[in-house]
Design brief:
two-stranded antiparallel sheet; 222 residues; 6 helices; 3-stranded antiparallel β-sheet; alpha+beta
Length: 222
């Protein structure tokens, strides 16, 4: 049986509170001629009106501890040393250059799949770990291969701040700003934003084989 986070917490969240600020931001700022409304919403109000009231809900996505036998749970609180930029797939938003946000609370975050893809690349291409170990940890990458689940379970990382950065298009010859072209704003999680990285190693395919588990856990995780 699969686990449904939203089903478990159905009725515990005030949908009116969740939607209230989203509706203000979307409906009031969608007009392309109201650039200042969008800037004010993101820079002055979004963190206090959208992120902070819903921040407690983000803790539901990451367990405080894991009691699975022979598993390893890593949890790291960190602070951004430089702005974080990503691309959301939200279709209805005042601007195109939006940071990736979760679908319910609209809080900036890194998807578990993004962590998985980035770490797979590092382990496989930078550390040059053997393909067999990469497959055990991350599972199959190609859809054509026989489906195999990896032992690593990734969790989302939420950020507690949002801001805007700007790109001012310049003329290549004069190096001056181009006339008639507005600055390009894009959403970021600024330097100093806080988040939590969480990762679970669970050798589900070795359940019952205690000898093999004890041999492999130190090899892969320590």
């Amino acid at each position: 049986m699969s686990y449904d986070f939203y089903a478990e917490h159905y009725g515990k969240i005030s949908l009116e509170d969740v939607k209230k600020w989203n509706q203000y931001t979307l409906l009031k700022c969608t007009n392309t001629n109201r650039e200042e409304n969008y800037k004010d919403s993101i820079q002055k109000y979004y963190t206090s009106k959208q992120i902070e009231p819903n921040w407690e809900y983000t803790k539901w996505f990451i367990p405080s501890e894991v009691s699975l036998s022979e598993s390893v749970f890593i949890k790291i609180n960190f602070e951004l040393r430089k702005p974080y930029i990503s691309k959301d797939d939200e279709e209805f938003w005042p601007k195109d250059n939006t940071i990736c946000k979760d679908k319910v609370f609209k809080i900036p975050y890194i998807r578990p799949s993004s962590w998985k893809g980035a770490l797979r690349h590092v382990v496989r291409d930078r550390l040059e770990v053997s393909k067999s170990i990469v497959k055990r940890l991350f599972g199959n990458e190609k859809e054509s291969e026989e489906l195999k689940r990896g032992r690593l379970i990734f969790y989302p990382t939420f950020f507690d701040q949002i801001d805007l950065d700007v790109i001012a298009p310049h003329d290549r010859k004069t190096k001056a700003g181009k006339k008639g072209i507005s600055p390009i704003y894009y959403e970021i999680s600024p330097k100093g934003s806080k988040g939590t990285f969480a990762l679970l190693y669970f050798p589900f395919d070795l359940i019952g084989d205690e000898k093999e588990i004890k041999e492999q856990v130190p090899t892969y995780m320590l």
